[in-house]
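Ticket closed. Logging final result for DUF5681 domain-containing protein.
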Amino acid sequence: MSHENDPDEPYDVGYKKPPKHTQWQKGQSGNPTGKKKKEQSLLVQLKRLSAKEIVVHQNGVAVKMTQGEAMLVAVFNKAMNGDLGSIKFISQILGISDADLSASKAPELSENLLGVLETYADWVGVVETARSELAEKSDHLENEGNDDAAY
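Final structure:
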């Protein structure tokens, strides 16, 4: 029989032999609170939050999307309303330079576009002719009215 397992046996306390009452009991952890959890980085937290699904109402219709998608929709809507910061953000994400944004591109002239321009020019001519005729009639009527006032 071994005397190590018998609690009534005398026990020599010394180097590498702590007193029995200070030793860990069977089933008791040496680290009861466990290892500390590593703190999540800001990037990991942002990714987790942006992946969370929400319901957004667009034009009266409920649409499911992630919070990241909803954020992009909001930024895009602000850009469409002329918010310069949002426009700059979207252009940076898409890789569009400021020169590309500011350069106005002339439309290519096609036969259809040329026909529309000619029709527009014809209508502008008709409107200008009508205005000048109206101005002449109103001047003529004013002059006739002044002759009556002289008598």
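Strands lie at 53-58, 61-66. No further action required.
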